[in-house]
């Protein structure tokens, strides 16, 4: 009769308990995380509300005393006590649109080159340069434009004005002017927002599935047809957001525009003429203003704040609508 020796059972290795995986500790951690994120979101809303309330309170004397003439007045002449913001709003919108008009095609072209055509080493170099341009202070662009570009702009603008002097409409839009103008400010501002639009657009293009692009090329499409038929439609919502982000950035620019636009509040169809924007007027005059003039300048900040919010909300709405149409859900 054989006897079987019983082997002692192997001792199980006990792992130390993880406090984050325990039910009680996990619930506490989730609760803390939820409260911290909620507090962060509420803090943003509170800051925006405080900005709106405090600036509106300081601008209220101008709003109440000037009434509708402040919001719809066509003249801004502080020396005569006339404060109509329409010329400043006109200048802000015009300069921003000029900047976006020139910046968007260049930004999309750079982003397409980086994501679709450039070699990996070249791609990293271009990306580094774009990121460095985004970090350059606006005053540097303004000083460069003021001392180096204004003489060049003046000669080029006058040459264009002479070339179209006999063409109706164009001779009004491109009439002779000085180097300081809507166009000068818009062109330099375009250089400033190109890095922002390019960076966002590049990241949007990188989200396009490789299988979709490879499938398009496999079916015989050229690279341009692939970009036009796959990359651009897939990225339309992101492109819209990038453009609106650049527009919002352009509308709030101060120093560079103040140095290049000419400080002449007016409504003019001449893109080569002098003008003024809301941020530039605040930057130029707030430190020396007092009384009603100071309230009127702070009121410009309130109006610019509202316009910026409207632009951002509109951008978000446009992105949602475009995405729904592309996906066929609306």
Largest sheet geometry: 2 strands, antiparallel
Oligomer: single chain
The value of Rg in angstroms is 28 Å
- The portion of residues assigned to helices is over 70%
Average per-residue pLDDT, rounded, comes to 85
Instruction: Report strand order across the widest sheet.
Output: 1-2
Q: Please count the helical segments.
A: 13
Series of H and E elements: HHEEHHHHHHHHHHH
- Estimate what percentage of residues fall within beta strands: under 5%
Q: Which class of secondary structure composition applies to the elements?
A: mainly alpha
Tally of DSSP β-strands: 2
Low-confidence stretches: none
- N-C termini distance: 84 Å
- Global morphology: globular
List keywords for this structure.
2 strands; 13 helices; two-stranded antiparallel ribbon; 72% helix; single chain; globular
Structural description of this entry:
With 330 residues, the protein is an all-alpha fold. The chain is built from 13 helices and two strands. Strands 1-2 form a two-stranded antiparallel sheet. The longest helix is centred in the N-terminal third of the chain and has 44 residues, at 23-66. The chain is globular, with a radius of gyration of 28 Å.
């Amino acid at each position: 009769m054989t006897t079987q020796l019983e082997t002692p059972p192997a001792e199980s290795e006990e792992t130390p308990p993880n406090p984050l995986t325990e039910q009680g500790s996990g619930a506490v951690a989730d609760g803390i995380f939820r409260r911290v994120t909620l507090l962060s979101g509420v803090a943003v809303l509170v800051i925006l509300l405080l900005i709106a309330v405090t600036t509106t309170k300081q601008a209220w004397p101008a709003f109440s005393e000037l009434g509708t003439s402040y919001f719809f007045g066509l003249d801004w002449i502080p020396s005569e006590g006339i404060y109509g913001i329409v010329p400043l709003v006109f200048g802000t919108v015009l300069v921003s649109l000029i900047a976006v008009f020139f910046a968007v095609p260049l930004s999309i072209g750079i982003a397409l080159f980086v994501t679709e055509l450039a070699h990996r080493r070249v791609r990293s170099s271009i990306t580094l340069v774009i990121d460095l341009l985004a970090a350059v202070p606006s005053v540097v662009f303004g000083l460069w434009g003021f001392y180096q570009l204004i003489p060049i702009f003046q000669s080029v603008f006058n040459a264009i004005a002479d070339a179209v002097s006999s063409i109706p409409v164009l001779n009004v839009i491109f009439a002779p002017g000085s180097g300081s103008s809507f166009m000068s400010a818009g062109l330099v501002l375009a250089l400033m927002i190109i890095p922002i639009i390019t960076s966002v657009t590049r990241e949007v293009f990188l989200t396009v599935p490789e299988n979709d692009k490879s499938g398009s090329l496999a079916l015989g499409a050229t690279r341009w047809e692939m970009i036009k038929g796959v990359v651009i439609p897939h990225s339309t919502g992101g492109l819209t957001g990038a453009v609106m982000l650049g527009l919002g950035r352009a509308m709030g620019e101060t120093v560079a525009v103040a140095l290049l636009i000419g400080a002449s509040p007016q409504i003019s169809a001449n893109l080569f003429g002098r003008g003024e924007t809301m941020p530039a007027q605040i930057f130029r005059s707030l430190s020396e203003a007092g009384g009603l003039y100071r309230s009127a300048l702070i009121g410009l900040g309130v109006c610019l704040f509202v316009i910026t919010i409207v632009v951002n909300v509109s951008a978000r709405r446009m992105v949602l609508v475009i995405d729904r149409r592309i996906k066929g859900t609306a």
